[in-house]
Amino acid sequence: MGAETGSVEAGGDRFSQDPAFAVHEGGKLAVRPTRPIETREDLALTYTPGVARVSSAIAAEPALARRFTWAPRVVAVVSDGTAVLGLGDIGPAAALPVMEGKACLFSEFAGLSSVPVVLSTTDVDTIVETVVAIAPSFGGINLEDISAPRCFEIEERLRARLDIPVMHDDQHGTAIVVLAALRNAARVTGRGLGDLRVVVAGAGAAGIACTKILLEAGVGDIAVADSRGVLHLGREDLNPVKRWVAEHTNRAGYAGTMTGALEGADVYLGLSGGSVPEAAIASMAPGCIVFSLANPIPEVDPEMAARYAAVVATGRSDLPNQINNVLAFPGVFRGAIDAGATAITERMKLAAAEAIAGVVGEDLAPGHVVPSPLDRRVATAVAEAVAACARDEGVTR
C-alpha cells in the first residue's frame, strides 16, 4: 500500500509534464449564478420567500418553467462510459473529462449551458428510466459514448418518452458532418450524391447513422461492412439494426469482403478502425473520395490515399478536411431549443448538413470540403437552419 500511495503522490510531477493535464486540473466546469446576492432584498427574491411565488406559478401553469427556470437552455450530456473516443469501455469516472469537454463546446460554440451526467450502470432500462427521471431539469439530452447496439434502443426509447430534443451525437453528429463533407466532395469532383457508390466500413453507431442519412439524402448505392464482411440478407448473424441495413442497401447483394466491395467504388467511409491495404484503395473508381475517420490513426494512410483519391478527409485536426462533430451538435441543439422543438427530426439533420456545407461557399476545394471546427459562422448557420426546419415541420411548442 505504501508504494502505491507514493506513486499517486509523485504523480503530480509526472502529470505536470503533459499540458493536457493542466487544462483538466480541477475539472473544466463551474456553475455560477446569473443574479448577484448582495442585499437582504436580493436574498429574499432569489430564495425564500420570493422564490415561492415563482414555484407556485409554475405548479399552476407548468409551461412557465420555460420562462422562469434555466432548464430550457441547459443540455444534459449523458454517458455510461462504454464507448469513449477510441478508448472503449472505460467506465463513467474516466468518461467524465470527455463529457466536461463536450459541455465546454456547447458553451463556446452555441452559448448553451450543459451538465455532464455519467451513469454507473450499463443496463438499458435503468439508463432510460434515469434520464426520464432527470429530464425536467433540462431542455435537451445529448447522449454520448454509449456502445452499440444498446445506444440505438436507448435513443429510440428516450425520443418516444420525452418531449425535448434527444440526440446520440456519436451517431447523428458524425452523420451530419459526413453528409455535409460528402455533398461538397461530390461537387468538387463534378458528381451528385445520386451518382455515388459508397462503401461504409463499420456497422456501429456512427456507421449505421451515416448509412441512414446518406440514404435519406439520395446517395446512389451503399454497401456496409462489419468485421465479418458486407451486410447482406443471406447472413444469419444480423441483429435487427443490421438486418434493416441489409434490407435497404447493397443492391447487388454482394456477399464478400469490404475490400472486395471497394473495387470500382466512388467513396470509402471508414468508421471502424483497422487498416485498409493500398491495393483496395487503388481499385476504387478514378477521382474517388476517401473519408478515413478512425482516430488517432486513420484506417487509410492519408498520404497513400492522396495518390488515388481526389478528396481525402480524416478525423484529425492536423490534416485538411477534419470531420469533427463540433460542426454539428452545438448548432443542432441551439436551433432545436431556440425553436422550442420537441424532437430532432431527420429533416432537421439534413438541414444541418446543408448549412454546414453551405458555409464553405466560394472556398470549396479538394482540401476544403468542410469548414474549420473553429469557424464561428457554422453554429449560427446550423442553428438557423434547424430552427427554421423545426418550425416548418410543426414540431415546436
TrEMBL record:
<protein>
    <submittedName>
        <fullName>Malate dehydrogenase (Oxaloacetate-decarboxylating)</fullName>
    </submittedName>
</protein>
<dbReference type="InterPro" id="IPR037062">
    <property type="entry name" value="Malic_N_dom_sf"/>
</dbReference>
<feature type="binding site">
    <location>
        <position position="324"/>
    </location>
    <ligand>
        <name>(S)-malate</name>
    </ligand>
</feature>
<dbReference type="InterPro" id="IPR036291">
    <property type="entry name" value="NAD(P)-bd_dom_sf"/>
</dbReference>
<dbReference type="GO" id="GO:0004470">
    <property type="term" value="F:malic enzyme activity"/>
</dbReference>
<keyword id="KW-0479">Metal-binding</keyword>
<dbReference type="InterPro" id="IPR012302">
    <property type="entry name" value="Malic_NAD-bd"/>
</dbReference>
<dbReference type="GO" id="GO:0016616">
    <property type="term" value="F:oxidoreductase activity, acting on the CH-OH group of donors, NAD or NADP as acceptor"/>
</dbReference>
<feature type="active site" description="Proton donor">
    <location>
        <position position="47"/>
    </location>
</feature>
<dbReference type="Pfam" id="PF00390">
    <property type="entry name" value="malic"/>
</dbReference>
<feature type="binding site">
    <location>
        <position position="144"/>
    </location>
    <ligand>
        <name>a divalent metal cation</name>
    </ligand>
</feature>
<dbReference type="InterPro" id="IPR046346">
    <property type="entry name" value="Aminoacid_DH-like_N_sf"/>
</dbReference>
<feature type="binding site">
    <location>
        <position position="145"/>
    </location>
    <ligand>
        <name>a divalent metal cation</name>
    </ligand>
</feature>
<dbReference type="InterPro" id="IPR012301">
    <property type="entry name" value="Malic_N_dom"/>
</dbReference>
<feature type="active site" description="Proton acceptor">
    <location>
        <position position="102"/>
    </location>
</feature>
<dbReference type="Pfam" id="PF03949">
    <property type="entry name" value="Malic_M"/>
</dbReference>
<keyword id="KW-0560">Oxidoreductase</keyword>
<dbReference type="InterPro" id="IPR001891">
    <property type="entry name" value="Malic_OxRdtase"/>
</dbReference>
<dbReference type="GO" id="GO:0046872">
    <property type="term" value="F:metal ion binding"/>
</dbReference>
<feature type="domain" description="Malic enzyme N-terminal">
    <location>
        <begin position="26"/>
        <end position="159"/>
    </location>
</feature>
<comment type="similarity">
    <text>Belongs to the malic enzymes family.</text>
</comment>
<dbReference type="InterPro" id="IPR051674">
    <property type="entry name" value="Malate_Decarboxylase"/>
</dbReference>
<dbReference type="GO" id="GO:0051287">
    <property type="term" value="F:NAD binding"/>
</dbReference>
<feature type="binding site">
    <location>
        <position position="295"/>
    </location>
    <ligand>
        <name>(S)-malate</name>
    </ligand>
</feature>
<feature type="binding site">
    <location>
        <position position="170"/>
    </location>
    <ligand>
        <name>a divalent metal cation</name>
    </ligand>
</feature>
<feature type="domain" description="Malic enzyme NAD-binding">
    <location>
        <begin position="171"/>
        <end position="391"/>
    </location>
</feature>
